[in-house]
Design a protein that fits this description.
By secondary structure, the chain is of the alpha+beta class. It is 27% helix and 31% strand. The chain is elongated.
Length: 89
């Protein structure tokens, strides 16, 4: 069990991820592929997508069932490491 200072989250829990990246036709699929590696039960149909006002960027929200801090850390690392993805919150 994680100690108090490791995380304030209690697992499992719903955890929304905000992913922002370049407006590209493949961005949603890239995000879906990465997220489902770490959260295989994620339903891509629940992904929310919004374009920036200028149309240059996309914001995607994926709410996963998080099972551990290492799972979330790996998810952030893989998402942040992709060249199309600029920010993960």
């Amino acid at each position: 069990m994680a100690s108090y200072k490791d995380t304030l989250l209690e697992f499992p829990c719903e955890f929304p991820l905000k992913i922002m990246g370049k407006a590209d036709d493949s961005l949603a699929q890239v995000v879906l592929d990465i997220v489902t590696v770490h959260a295989p039960d994620f339903d891509g149909a629940t992904m929310e997508m919004r374009a920036s006002s200028g149309g240059n960027y996309l914001s995607l929200t994926c709410t996963v069932i998080a099972t551990s801090k290492p799972q979330l850390d790996a998810l952030y690392t893989d998402l942040s490491g992709h060249p199309l993805i600029k920010v993960v919150l």
